[in-house]
Write the structure tokens for this entry.
Amino acid sequence: MNDNKIASGEPILVTGGAGYIGSHVVRDLGEHGYRPVVFDNLSSGRAEAVLYGELVRADIADTELLGSVIRRHGIKSVMHFAAYIVVNESVAQPLKYYENNSFNCLRLLKCCLENGVENFIFSSSAAVYGMPGKVPVNELAPLLPINPYGGSKLVSEMLLRDAAAADPRFRYVALRYFNAAGADRQARIGQDYRQPTHLMTLALKTALGQFPRLEVFGTDYPTPDGTAIRDYIHVDDLAGAHLLALEFLKDGGTSSAFNCGYGIGHSVLDVVAAAKRVSGIDFKVVHAARRLGDPAALVADAGAIRRELGWAPKVPHLDDIVASAWAWEKKLAARRP
């Protein structure tokens, strides 16, 4: 528990709030007067990343404790981040992903409905679209995931949809992330995984000499430079979308799904070039085969979240995203020589 940074405002339960995206949302909740109650087993998150509120170290599978926390704090709003996120791992271990991402969401949802939770914000993914026929992709596109990670997120969205249809008191927003990147612009928190998989993080760690080379997976995609294209969104802008979604639901907004991205695609080689440009280091890059389950291009049509929630990005430029991640990675490196 971080006693010196517990606000007196409305309590918000944040599952997975010690992880990368969750911790940035917890930061914003605390800075906006909410009282985060973080429920995290710390399998990939870190206690020191929880800048505000109370940290309950536990697993969602412990539904007895989960229910008691909801009742004790009088929780009416939940933000759910806890999930496995590595696409190629999901292809190799699909049941692991459905067990944690889908079944644990079911456990949490059931506990929420039994204890009077009214608002639920879900950390979903653009992976629910699979390989969309049209890019940028909007929320009306077919949901046809091509890997178990995306499938597990879609199952959770279906659970939320059906629960909301059955109970008029319960409403949700599913935020479909494209590629979260960057770090807190004061370098207080950022990605800190034991085994990083995000491209930008790996590139910058390679620049720092922590890896001998950066592997680029797939150079034969049907894209201008042959590498996969993604829509990179700064984690601060993503965090801001969660607070707007919370306000939307509290103001009576209807259950909805929104894309979270900038509508700007950058290839893997674009990100590599930006990492070299920002760091000033020309690190080694090697080409490797495509990874299983990776689509060629995913770029958001984010018109709906701009119209409905009034969301306006603050850090849309790739070099600025990389610069924030670079400051964080240098801080981590200095901390752990």
